[in-house]
Amino acid sequence: MKHILAVLVAASLVWSFYTPSPVTPPAPKSPVTQALSPATSQDKARVAGFYAALADVVERDDKTVSTVGVFRELHGRSLDLAFKGTDLPGKYPGLDVAINDLLVAAVGKDDVPLPPAKRQSLVQALKDVANAAR
Amino acid sequence: MPPDEPLFDSPEELVRAYEAGGFQGYQPSERDKEEFLSTNPVRAFTAPSSGEGKRALIWGYTLALDPGAYSERQTVGDCVSHGSRNARDLTRAVSLLVNGDPFSWHKRTATEPTYGARGHGGEGMSPARASKFERDVGFCPREEFPGIVDLSKYDGHLGARWGRQGGVPTPVQELCRRNKVGTITLIRTVEEARDALYNGYGIHSGQMAAWSARPNSQNIHGRSSPGWAHDMATVGMDFSRTFWPFDVFFIQNSWGRWNTPVPDWPDDYPPQPAGMIVTKADDWEVCVRGGDCWVYSDVQGFPPRPLPDLGSIGRI
Question: What's the mean pLDDT when you consider all of chain B?
C-alpha cells in the first residue's frame, strides 16, 4: 500500500512539473511573401532590390520626400521607371495591394508631412517589403 | 494709371518706389494696434525656451514643403500681407515637420484676403490690421475656389480692389474662416525675436529701414538710407557665432531678385532664397524699435487629405 501511495505521489509530482512544450505555429507569411510565392528567384531579387534601394533613398533624404503625398509620387514613378514595359507589372496578382497595405499600415493614407519618427516608420515598412520579397 | 495695372513691374521699380519715391507699404497705426491688443488674450510674448547661443534656420522647413516659397514678388503695396503670409506659413511648416502636428501642409497660403482687409482704398497697410483679420477671420490656401474666387496664382490687384470696394467679400471671408492664426503677439526685443524663432515661430515686422542690395566685406547686407516704409518676414537667426562672428538674422523680402546674395554661405545651411537679407542683430533691432514686430504661433492648419493609395497599385 505504501509503495502504491509513493508511486502515486511521485506520478503526481512528475505530472505537475510536466507541461507539454507548446507547439509554436509557424509565423504567418507576409502577404508580400505569399503574393511572390510562385515567383522566380530573379523576380524576387528584383522586387527586394527595388524596395531596399527605395528605403535607402527615403532614409537618407530630408528635403525632397517631405510628405506622404510626395512619397506616393516618388514610389509610383520609380516603379514605372524600374518595371514599366517589363513582364513584372501584374505578373503576381495581389502583390501591388499587399505592398500598399503594408505601407498604409506604417504611415496611413493622409497626405501629411513626414517628421523623423514617421519617416522612420516608412523606411522600416519599405525594408519589410524588401525582406518579405527575399 | 488704370487701377488694375501693376504698380510695380520689376524688383528695380519696387526698390525705386520704396527708396526714393517715399512709397508706404507699411503704415504704422497705433489705433489698429491698440484695437488688436485690447481684444487679444496675450499682450506680451513669452518663449518656452531660450535661443541664446543657438541658431534657427527655419526657412528650410518651409522650403522643404514648398520649394517655390518666397518666390512671389509683390506687384502692389501689399508687403504687409506678404510678410504676414511668410510668417504664418513658416510657423505652419515648423509645426508640421518638427512637432508632427496632425495637419496637412496642403498649399502655400494667399496674401490677397489679408490685403483686402486693410480698411481703405489706397496702398499700404498696418501690420496690426493684418493680425486682426488673420486672428478673427483667417486665411486661405493658394487655390481656386470655383464660383467664388481664384487664389491659385498671386494677383496683387485682387486684394487692392477689395480694399477699394470696402473689404473682403463675404464668401471669401467664409472660406478664410476655415483656418485662423491662433496666437499673434508683439515682439519687443531682439532677445524675444531670437527666442521666438528658436521655438519655431515666424515673425514679420513693419519699419522705416533699408538694407543695401550688395553684401559688404563682412558677408552681410548692411543698413542703408533712406529707409523703406516696408514690412518683411524674419525667417531665421544664427546666434551661435560659428560662421559669422556676430549674431545674425535672416529677413525675407517680397521683391523677387532685388539684391545680391551673400557670397559665403555655410554648407550645412538651407538654400539662400532670392531676396533674402542677411543682417547683423544690431541692425535688425530697428525691426522691434518701431513697435510693429509680430510673432505668429499656433496656426490652425489644413485637415489632411486622404490619398487613394501609396503608389504601388497597378504598377507592380
Answer: 93
Q: State the smallest CA–CA distance between residue B66 and chain A in angstroms.
A: 9
Task: Please give the torsion angle defined by the CA atoms of residues A100, A106, A112 and A117, in that order, rounded to the nearest 10 degrees.
Answer: -150
Strand B293-299 to strand B181-186: parallel, antiparallel, or no bridges (unpaired)? antiparallel
Question: Rounded to whole angstroms, how far apart are CA atoms B54 and B149?
Answer: 43
Verify whether the Cβ–Cβ distance A110 to B65 is below 8 Å: no
Q: What is the mean pLDDT of residues B150-177?
A: 96
Coil/strand/helix, residue B157: helix
Contact indicator for B67, B38 with CB cutoff of 8 Å: no
Q: Domain containing A88: what range?
A: 30-133
CB contact under 8 A, A113 and B96: yes
pLDDT band, very low/low/confident/very high, at A27 (cuts 50, 70, 90): confident
Answer yes or no: is B1 within a domain.
no
Taking the model in full, what pTM does it have?
0.79
Q: Is residue B143 part of a domain?
A: yes
The CA angle B184-B87-B11, to the nearest 5 degrees, is 140
Q: What is the pLDDT of residue B49?
A: 79
Flag whether B43 is in a domain.
Answer: yes
Cβ atoms of A115 and B100 within 8 Å: the answer is: yes
Q: How far apart are CA B297 and CA B83, in angstroms?
A: 15
Closest CA to B190 of B305, B52, B73: B52
* Residue B37 near chain A (CB below 8 Å): no
Q: Which domain holds residue B74?
A: 24-299
Number of domains in chain A: 1
User: What DSSP assignment string belongs to B196-217?
Assistant: HHHTT-EEEEEEEEEEEEEE-T
In a domain, A2, yes or no: no
Q: Which of A114-123, B91-100, B144-153, B288-297 has the lowest mean pLDDT?
A: B91-100
pLDDT the model gives residue B235 = 98
Q: Is A76 on the interface with B (CB under 8 A)?
A: yes
